[in-house]
Amino acid sequence: MVTLVAPQTQPGFIDRFLVSAEAYHIPVTILFNKMDLYEESDLNVVEEFIQIYQKAGYDCRKISASDPVSIEFLKNDIKGNKVMFGGHSGVGKSTLINALDPNLKLKTGEISIQHLSGQHTTTFAEMFELSSGGFVIDTPGIRAFGLIDFDKEDLSHYFPEMREILHECKFNNCQHINEPGCAVKKAVEDGKIHESRYASYISMMNSDEEETFRKDIYK
Ligand SMILES: Nc1nc2c(ncn2[C@@H]2O[C@H](COP(=O)(O)OP(=O)(O)O)[C@@H](O)[C@H]2O)c(=O)[nH]1
Ligand SMILES: [Mg+2]
Ligand SMILES: [Zn+2]
To answer: Where in the chain is the domain with CATH 3.40.50.300?
Structure first.
């Protein structure tokens, strides 16, 4: 779940999230929430984001947790599945789950350590069954992502639009940085891969290996 105001989600955060999902073969739908709050200029930014992520192959949906019509499709998507809602604190994950099933009464808004009866604070991931079918996992807000369980050399495999053309690179160990005959760099130049996605790739390649690619996160 992504919002562009209150709070603002950065492409770099989305890209790290998506890479983690790809690494675990988890299909992603990007929900742009709080559409009811956006001014004209915000709407342009939403469209830019949607361009970036549709080009990368992701399903993008504009919703408002407060607009039942905009979220109805989710009931079908969730039926028969287990679905995790992720994103920054305050983007509206718990509000959306309540809108999908008002019986759940998850706590929203201010994070509180008080456990009021009949309410759940999102301080850890918790799974709930929806009355319309399927299960949803509500997660606490994620500030940053540093949890990717694979080698740096494989990073481009977790960008779907890069994965498609990797075999076209001249060198089979191409890192898509400075190598000649690199199909990824050419696709960026030709506008087939969005510059913002490539910038995230480079940023992740340059990031501290211990931080970004550590393999002991669940130990
Ligand atoms: N205007 C508007 N506010 C929303 C929407 N979704 C959530 N909110 C508000 O955003 C705040 C944070 O929501 P919450 O569900 O607690 O976010 P979470 O931390 O992602 O679970 C609450 O005050 C919600 O009422 C929406 O679609 N539109
Ligand atoms: Mg919450
Ligand atoms: Zn390459």
So the answer is: 11-138
Of 1, 69, 95, best ligand 1 pocket probe by most atoms within 8 Å of the beta carbon:
95
Task: Output the pLDDT for position 123.
Answer: 65
Fold of 11-138: Rossmann fold (3.40.50)
DSSP for residue 28: -
- Write down the CATH number for the domain with range 152-212: 1.10.40.50
C-alpha to C-alpha distance for 93 and 91, rounded to whole angstroms: 6
Torsion sign, CA atoms 51, 53, 56, 59: negative
Segments of the chain with pLDDT less than 50: 112-118, 120, 216-219
Q: For 131, which DSSP code?
A: T
- As given in the structure block, the two tokens for residue 55 are 């080009």
Cβ of 65 less than 6 Å from ligand 1: yes
Pair of tokens at residue 107: 């706590």
